Structures are given as C-alpha cells and as structure tokens.
Amino acid sequence: MTFSVSRRALLGAALGAPPLARAQGAARLLVIGGGFGGATAASYARREHPWLDVTLVEQRTRYITCPYANRVLAGDLSLADITHEYDGLRARGVRVIHDRAIHHDPVARRVRLGGGEVLSYDRLILSPGIALRYDALDGYDEAAAERMPHAWIAADGAQLSLLRRQLEAMPDGGVVGVVIPANPYRCPPGPYERISLIAGYLSRHKPRSKILALDAKDAFSKQSLFQDAWRALYPGMIEWVSAANDGRVVRVDPGAMELETEFGTRHRVDVANVIPPQSAAAIATDAGLADGTGWVPVNSQTLESRTAPGVHVVGDAMFPGPMPKSGFLANSEAKAAVAAAAALLRGEAPPASVFVNTCYSHVGPDYAISVANIFRAAAGSQSFVEVPGSGGTSPRGDLPEQRRLEALYADGWYASITRDMFG
C-alpha cells in the first residue's frame, strides 16, 4: 500500500470533509482489517449507527483468532473451534469485500483494492494487526519460520498447525525452546500461556520433556501467577531465563536447531517456537502512518492518526502507551473509534473515550488467571493513562475453585466477544 501526502494536502483533507458525507446520502465508513478491531468496528457501527454505510475489507474469507490459539497447540481445541465466518456481518448490513488494499489517497479519501475496485470513504478505520520483524533476529526469516515456527499470526492457521505437528513428533525427553521478544508485542501474557499449555500437553504425553523459555525481558505480565502455577502443575518442566540471566536471543540457526543468546550461549533444542519482535502491519508502515517505534501514533481521544486526518487506527497496529495489545482492548478501541467517527461526521464533538481490558490466560485444565485494567485519554495530552485503582489480577494462593471459575469465565468471554464481532 502506498501513501504520499504533503502538508498542504493534509490541511485540505482535514478541512475538506464536511459532516454527513457532504450531506449527500449515507456517510461512508470504510473498515480495513477483519480481526478483533475491524470486525468489531463494522459490527458496532451497523448496530449503533445504522445511518452509516459500512464496508469491511479483509483478505481472508475466514478468521482464525489468536486468543485461544494456544489451546489448539495443547490439543484442547481444533482450528475449526477458533475459526469464524463473516456471514453474520453481512446479515447486519455490512458490505464485506475479500480483497487487499494496495493504495490509499488520504486527500481524495479513496482506497484502491488489489482487484481494481476503488472505494471512497468519509471516515476510515484501519485495523491491520502486526507484522513480524524478521530483520530483528539474525538468522530468522520466512524460510526459517518453516523450521522454527512463530505461530504468532494465527489467521492463516499454517504456522499454528506446523508447531502442533512438531510437538506431536518430538520424542519424549526432548526440549522445546521458546523465544520471547521485548515489549511491546501482541498479547503480553501470550507466550507464558503458550508455555503453560505446551507443558500441559507434554506432562500428559511426553513427561520427560522440558521447556526452555528464553526471554528478552526481566519481568512479564502476571508473572507471579504463572510461576506459581508452573511450580504446582509442572514442577521441574519449565526453565524461564530472564534477559539479565542471558535470556535474550540474538541469533538462531534453523539447520542446527540452535538458539544463541547475547553472551554467546548456544542452546540446542528439538522444537523451537521463535516469536520475533513486531511492528504495525505493512499496510500501516508502507502508508507512512507509523513512526520510529514501528507503531502508529494516534490522537488518544479519537484514535485518529496524527498524520492522516480521517483515518482512525485501532488494535495492535496502534501505539498504545501503557495499554497492552490485547483482543479485548482492540474491541474497546474499535467502539471508541466508531463513536468518534460518527460524532465527527455529524459535526459534533466526539465523546470521552474509556478503554477496557480483561485478559484471561489458561494455564492448565480447569485453571485460568486474569488481569483487568481501565484506561482513558490523558487530559491535555496525546497519551493514555490507566484509571487509578481500576486494575487488578487474580489472587495468589492455592485456590482451585477460583482457577476453575476463571477458566469458565474465559470460555464465556471468548464466546461473547466473538459473537460481538461476527454476529
């Protein structure tokens, strides 16, 4: 996707889009990306603002969720269990186009698709997700990922299935290496949930095996809760190595199945799950929306791009400050962006935005933990802040009923949010 715009063009774009699509018919809301942010935005816009003409552009005809993908690795679910169709959005009146956006003209407010169709919009919500930074880890590229899968973009299912097959084929007594990047990345507790559920699979089927988790950080989300569970459920199976203890991987060798850390230690493993550093998806970086961080800076009140008026960016591609990159927050951000876009199209001030996050992590059978937060736009700035006293995690301790209930709550959350997204 290409993007080129001058300061004069930006000013023209900002001033040249009167409310309600120039009072000519329905206002046109275009959504690019059909995941937690984009599908939510399209669905919510039709439900809450039926006067909007909503079009969703998504390449894939089916969407496989990253949440609950780790349970597929554990053998608890199949790919079919986390795969969703777009028919519900169509039933709500969303025009769904399965194609790729290849060119964006922010002045004319048009997007050209790979198939040749040109779509005009009054407001655009961009929710493209992430790209993997293959250049950030020596020896790791798309070819290496066929030997050392990342399985971190679940949408096509191939990487997830590959890692599952490798775990099944590994002999008992083998070593699974997991490479974990520095912040920020998609789903902060995701690698640790993955470690837990892989350990659950190994404890049932290959109990002499080990997991070596090499981390580019010294601390992680819900750390004490995860480590309590590892000691209780999988004693001696998981070794977590922090950055301070030479856990940061700088090079991989797919042929030798080796992971090399920054102080030169080489670890030979039987299965390697390499999760590389990430950035906003190419559609955002190629369009010039991302800054030096690799993520897209936005107006914290409206989630509008700071460089492209009329373009609201939600989900993992956005630079969220203290907010984690989670499916729940993408859902919350999408609703806030739709509310802001609808108000601006009506010539009204956008409402105050509040962003809610709850993140459940399965650790074992009938065992889950969670963290919750509420965020808002910081007064007088472009940043986000956590609402004081709003956050919390599951209590520590030997609480089997608490863990069982949270596993049920997690299942209920997944069913609810995917129904909210896809109808």
From TrEMBL:
Gene3D superfamilies: FAD/NAD(P)-binding domain, Flavocytochrome c sulphide dehydrogenase, flavin-binding domain. Residues 28-140 form the FAD/NAD(P)-binding domain. Residues 162-276 form the Sulfide dehydrogenase [flavocytochrome c] flavoprotein chain central domain. Keywords: FAD, Flavoprotein. InterPro entries: FAD/NAD-bd_sf, FAD/NAD-binding_dom, FAD/NAD-linked_Rdtase_dimer_sf, FCSD_central, FlavoCytC_S_DH_flav-bd, FlavoCytC_S_DH_flav-bd_sf, SQRD. Residues 352-422 form the Flavocytochrome c sulphide dehydrogenase flavin-binding domain. PANTHER family: FAD-DEPENDENT PYRIDINE NUCLEOTIDE-DISULPHIDE OXIDOREDUCTASE, PTHR43755. This is NAD(P)/FAD-dependent oxidoreductase.
